[in-house]
Amino acid sequence: QVQLAESGGGSVQAGGSLRLICTVFPYTVDKCRMAWFRQAPGKEREGVAAIGDDGSTGFADSVKGRFIIAKNVAKNILSLEMNNLKSEDTAMYYCAAGPFSIDWSLSSGAYTYWGAGTQVTVSS
């Protein structure tokens, strides 16, 4: 059973930054497709950022230029660096992992395993 655990969420003022971390066990981050999703109250879960095994990345239009996704193979973690945060970024953020794939995907159907989530709250 693959286990994902997110950390790093919290409360921040608009314009601030946060870095989310996802630890993975027993898979290694270089052997699976990975992404970050988020879900705000009353809204559907949406893909935020994804990374393929070739290092290619994809982002939702709403976060392009502000968020960075990365894998650290040595530490076996997935990270999401979030800069210039806006109130509309407030949501529960989830780490997701799926079968190995070269390319990235922001579709939730591409992922099999999910973490419990970490809350990000941005105040204006």
Molecular structure report:
The structure is a single chain. This protein is mainly beta and 124 residues long. It has no helices and 11 strands. The chain has strands at residues 3-7, 10-13, 18-25, 33-39, 46-51, 57-59, 67-72, 77-82, 91-98, 113-114, 118-123. The strands form 2 sheets. Strands 2, 4, 5, 6, 9, 10 and 11 form a 7-stranded mixed sheet that branches. The protein has a 4-stranded antiparallel sheet with strand order 1-3-8-7, with no helix packed on it. It is globular. The model has no long low-confidence stretch (mean pLDDT 95).
List its traits.
11 strands, 4-stranded antiparallel sheet, 124 residues, mainly beta, globular, 49% strand
Quick structural overview:
This protein is mostly beta strands and 124 residues long. It is 0% helix and 49% strand. It is globular, with a radius of gyration of 13 Å.
Walk me through the topology.
Blueprint: E1 3-7, E2 10-13, E3 18-25, E4 33-39, E5 46-51, E6 57-59, E7 67-72, E8 77-82, E9 91-98, E10 113-114, E11 118-123
Parallel strand pairs: 2-11
Antiparallel strand pairs: 1-3, 3-8, 4-5, 4-9, 5-6, 7-8, 9-10, 9-11
